What does this fold into?
Amino acid sequence: MNTHIIPEETINEIVCPSCELYFEGIINMNVEQALIVMLKITRFFKFNMDHQMQWHSKYQVRMVNNVEHYKIELSIKDWKDEMDWIQKNSAKQYHICIQDLLLQTLYAMNGLYYRINDRDYNWEEEFNRIFVGMPYGKEFDIAIIRFLLLPLYNATHDTNYQMSIVFP
It folds into this structure.
């Protein structure tokens, strides 16, 4: 095995922006490389989302029963009791929306900020139709590239790439 040493100057260039809150650059790759990287990331998030959805479907009845049993133990009878309990016990929100995390990752890689609190519900509905509703495969890859990845690359690199493939 050949050992390669990364020089200190290179490491300093990599970690230099570590104090920045947001990445202020763009993917320094040609369109093909960037699409491959972004598609791999998208597939990773889709796999995790699909896995969570399968787990939730498998254990949904059990979870509902456990929550109802817990509410009975705590004498929570209605939504007001539940809100009072949350306020008293400082309940934390641990739910992470995989779609939001994916979009924040892809936008940050391209030097943009995904406005999570400024929703475009029509756009997100179409995104979810593709990301959540479509199974893995060539159709998914082409749809997500056409809808999200290529327009994001074009917007951040001031290019106008289009796909020549005909696909519904």
Q: What stands out?
A: The radius of gyration is 22 Å.
